[in-house]
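>> Question from a student workshop board

For tomorrow's exercise we were told to take the sequence and the ligand below, predict the bound structure, and bring the output to class. My setup keeps failing. Could a helper post the expected result so I can at least see what it should look like? The ligand is flavin-adenine dinucleotide.
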Amino acid sequence: MKSIAVIGGGITGVTTAYALARRGLHVTLFERHRYPAMETSFANGGQLSASNAEVWNSWGTVFKGLTSMLRSDAPLLVNPTPGWHKLSWFAEFLAAIPRYESNTIAGARMAIAAREHLFGWAREEGIDFDQRQEGILHIYRDKARFDHAARVSTLLAQGGLTQRAVTPQEMRAIEPTLAGRFYGGFYTESDSTGDIHKFTVGLAQAAQARGVALACGVDVRRLDAGEDGARVLYTRDGIEEAQRFDALVVCAGTASRKIAAMLGDRVNVYPVKGYSITVMLEDAASRAAAPTVSLLDDASKLVCSRLGANRFRVAGTAEFNGFNRDIRAERIAPLVNWVQQCFPGVSTRQAVPWAGLRPMMPDLMPRVGPGKRPGVFYNTGHGHLGWTMAAATAELIAGQLQQALAPASPRRRAPLAA
Ligand SMILES: Cc1cc2nc3c(=O)[nH]c(=O)nc-3n(C[C@H](O)[C@H](O)[C@H](O)COP(=O)(O)OP(=O)(O)OC[C@H]3O[C@@H](n4cnc5c(N)ncnc54)[C@H](O)[C@@H]3O)c2cc1C
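>> Workshop helper replied:
Here is what the output should look like for this input. Compare the format with yours to find the bug.
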């Protein structure tokens, strides 16, 4: 049986390992933490949102980035200290602006394709991840932003997504707990939410039951690949070990750039920091005052999801500040304030803060496909939509690998696009 190493135990690595195991391949999943889903796949916004597939590559985003650089509470923040990684990423970001429309359409298509796999796997494996299928409501406070959303909606429709424009009255009927004055909204009934950490841990257990070797607490230090297969060198409890595989898949989140460089590939993932708070709904009044429908507030760029009866997650902000993982009080405060403004009956006494780094490619499209060397594959760089898209890209990469490893096939197909 062909053996495959998957590097990284976040949502992309675990879905990849699982999709490969379903195809009868022998998989070892390497994860440096003691458990899966302890980095970016830990406490994100929870949205499975085809409706958020708009890529950020536009002059509007560039303008917002420049004007918000001096405000520490702005949703988008760029540390102006230059560095090659950041500069090269922004240059490629600008170069992808002409592909804004086609990438937005492709993203919507991928997000829709992911639903079928994710929900099917959860059903089949009996994974409880606080899934809620009540749609996602995007809310707009002025006409300009609403009109922009209407233009985006036509692109999403080309990707197969159905949304409907709603009036402030209809918004209140959809989510009665929402307070404030709004110009209008867009409601996507087919979108949903769930806890990424719970799902990833549940799927990792299901993968194990299907024969995947879960190597947690194992730090991959060096990778190599050639005609005789792939070699993974790692440390476990400080001791160096090495293992040979027929192929490997890099799903290492923000570490994918460094790992790709070891394999002679360029995968320019940048760590785009975001924050979340998980509000514990401890009393009945808070539970009644918290929304059940998931929201995206376009002005503040915040999303929220109800996770089970007792938890309410709010997440957002994008910070270009390297690998810094500090949880900064002035970045958490706008999230707490937003809850107080939009859901005044919710107590924020117990709000657990978190920060994570989105592994983002400059064109906001994940890298899914083979590398330059034989037996090397990537499924990484899902940016702000890793939870939404992972099941689709895992299926895609598993299919490519299965084909590449089939006895009569060449081991790799087209080289990875730069
Ligand atoms: C605030 C915030 C809100 C978000 N909200 C949403 C949302 O609502 N919907 C949505 O779709 N997406 C959302 N996202 C994005 C989504 O969470 C990410 O795209 C996704 O979690 C990335 O998964 P990953 O597997 O690529 O990376 P990770 O989850 O970071 O996994 C990579 C793993 O690789 C491991 N690793 C790295 N290097 C090594 C090594 N050398 N050896 C062993 N292991 C290694 C790491 O330890 C890590 O566990 C949000 C992100 C943030 C930060």
